[in-house]
Amino acid sequence: MSDLFLQYNYIIVIILMMTGLYIVFASRNLIKKLAGLSVFQTSVFLLYITIGKVSGGQPPILIEDKGYGADKDGHALLEGTIQTAAGGASYILPGPGSDVLYSNPLPHVLILTAIVVGVATLSIGLALTVRIREVYRTIEEDEIEAADFVYNLEGTAD
Amino acid sequence: MSFLEFVPDWLLAHAPAFLMALPLIMAAITAILPNKRVAWASTFIVTAILTVTAFTIALYNAEVGTTIYKMGGWAPPHGISLVIDALNAPVVVLIALMSLITVIYALPATVAEIKPNKRAPFYAAFLLCTAGLLGMTVTGDAFNVFVFLEVSSISTYVLVAMGAARDRRALSAAYNYLILGSIGATFFVIGVGFLYMETGTLNMADMARILADLDGGSRVAKIAFGFIVIGLGLKLAMFPLHTWLPGAYAYSPTPVAAFLASTATKAALYLLLRFTFFVFDPSYSYVADVLMFVLVGLGVVGMIFASLQAIFQTDVRRMLAYSSVAQVGYMLLGIGIATTASVAAGYLHLLNHAIIKGGLFLAIGAMWYRFGITRTEDFRGLGKTMPLTMGAFTVSGLSLIGVPFTAGFVSKVNLTFAAADSGWWWAVAVIMVTSILALIYIGRLLLVAYFQSPPVVNGEVVVRNEAPIAMLLPMWTLALASVFVGIWSDTMVGMAIRAAELLLGAG
Amino acid sequence: MSNPEEKLGVDEFGRDPHVLLRVIAKFLIPLIALFAFYVQFHGDYGPGGGFQAGVILAASVILYALIFGLAEAKKAFPPRLIRYGMTLGVILYGGTGVVNLILGGEFLNYSNLASDSIAGQHYGILAVELGVLVTVTTVMIAIFYAFGSRQPETSDEDW
């Protein structure tokens, strides 16, 4: 049980995810649904950050002026895998036994992309809400459905 | 093949990146073009180039085999790779070809349905949607799939909302689609996050290798699979997650409805195939359970319920939308049985249904363009007033039912034989029942159009008023294509079998 | 609220009711823009980059519009320029990729941009981040203009 409380990040992720989904399903107001969608997407960002955390990790910058035999504090780096980058330049990355621990930049990049996607979706949702407000004079979903019900009964307008 | 010798080397080498990048950059330029005709022309040129490139790499793939393109020069698994193999080459050709056909159709259609100052942004959003769909299909990196999935989905929300000029219910349909589509994409990205947690990589081929070493993975991989199936299921309109589809197809502008019906759900179905059989494997017990109970179960329920719902619609566009949900059920049944023959049949139906549904939506769009009709009872006498358009609708409709010598017959026969080979006789019965239901809702329209006299308006019988040539050409191309596939079916069936062997033969 | 395009002026006693806001905004808005450029170029060495910098730069323009009125902001950043800016950013990013294709590598392979492949990677990243900055800034400002220009439906008495 104490293991569960040590991983409080995941509990927060689940709480936010379920809260966001409940807000989307249960609200009858268009803006509130968009707010719930944002909460739901935020829980996903938190999940990615949680799995990307490396305890004691340095920023993943290779220091150029020191030789690749030592890191910035002068600790000797054990030879790790030789990675060949585009263009043929080769870098020696710190291997599993070296004294320097780099944190992984990949999950942060994934979250940044997901945040941008979330912003774009939110802005389109808000633009649609503004247009619905102008056409239907309301943003409550049941009033919109009632207006459309009458519209449906009369048949399509030619 | 002699055609490949005429293609310049750089095009063949960089074709996948070209497919992804050209519509993206041209979309940004098309959005600011001042003249509507120039915007249409640039869209037409871009889609024509995309179609030629897609055919080229499909031919090259048929000769040479799988090609992998390293984006940015970084080798996978650290870099993003673009993969063209037997599974996605036909889908790429389908998307490019349907975008070209829809752009030709859109020249008169947008004059009637979209305001003049919104036409250049409409074509820009259309190019963005094409870029997203093509990118989704050629990429070999799981997170890149999410990015392009969202690019295509967001531009789809905008395209559907543009139908508000003609029918104001498009706005709430687009909003509903936005909420459900974003939830689906977020479920997909949660699944990708769990997969990254389990395997440490985002490259799909690398994930497959690591999961095979781990023999199916731990509970994390099971959760990932669940989230991915639900997320993609929402995008491809699997039965209980299909509620966005009727509104989005019915109230959007007609070229958009035809394009979406033939490409958006098909690209999501391709992704489901890729993740279920390539990244994960049917030999893992949890995958087999999901295939049996979720895909087959929901597919069959969707087939029956959606066909029944299609019968009771008065609006033709909604009827075709529910019919699409039912046809997706056929494909899910094929995937769920998980033998080479059945997956090939499901894949074949994916390609055939795109051709059929595209043709049907283009035909009824032309009928709206000339007469402004969308309800079934308004179709009286269309056999006399619009004979060519109604002819195209009839050919595509008969193909949907599954009349011999049409594409629908080929895919249904293959699916029935595959189900019978595995001993699933109840599936054969369900296929027969739903074909009869399709006969009811399509046949009703054909009866009304051919056997009732044209309506009398203002005291005069309506005379013949055919659709413009820019609309007739695309819909007859698709109708004739479905007949062609029905008669000379070897090429398509061969492509489907090669795709299924790639998935199931590789394990 | 009355028409958002109306210039903020003085009240009936001849005093400017928003003098505090305006003085502080005139001081802060250039600092916010400078911070945006700092975040943009710091993206090579720490958290930062095109998207974050673009949003901060757009926030400075939006703050200007909120305090001095939408009409003033539209005079300073005309909507036509904003529309062209969106396309310019995408062309910068895609164009870098196409230039790399022409110079002989794959799409978006920055190594060939300079004689030394490490410097080439540096130039490539700078170029694409600049494209991202331009696009994000102009898109955010365009969204604000689109929402801010809608005519309000309720008049002052109905509030």
Describe the structure in your own words.
The complex is a heterotrimer of chains A (158), B (507) and C (159). Chain A is mainly alpha-helical. Chain A is built from five helices and two strands; from the N terminus they run αααββαα. In chain A, helix 2 (8-26) packs antiparallel against helix 3 and helix 3 (30-52) packs antiparallel against helix 4. The termini of chain A are far apart. Chain B has 507 residues and is mainly alpha-helical. In chain B, helix 4 packs antiparallel against helix 5 (119-138) and helix 13 (316-337) runs antiparallel to helix 14 (340-371). Chain B is globular and about 75 Å long. Residues 155-159 of chain C have low confidence and may be disordered. Chain C has helices at 19-42, 50-68, 70-76, 79-102, 117-148. Chain C has five helices and no strands. Chains in contact: A-B, A-C, B-C.
Top keywords for this entry?
heterotrimer, A: mainly alpha, two-stranded antiparallel sheet, 5 helices, B: two-stranded antiparallel sheet, 20 helices, 2% strand
- What spatial form of chain C do the alpha-carbon principal axes imply? elongated
Quaternary state reads heterotrimer
| DSSP strand tally of chain B | 4
Number of domains of chain C: 1
Global morphology of chain B:
globular
Largest protein-protein interface: A-B, 40 and 36 residues
The low-confidence parts of chain B are: none
Can you give the helix content of chain C as a percent range?
55-70%
- Give average pLDDT of chain C, whole number: 84
Write the H/E string of chain C, N to C. HHHHH
Strand content range of chain B: under 5%
- Beta-strand portion of chain C reads under 5%
Ends apart, CA distance between termini of chain B: 31 Å
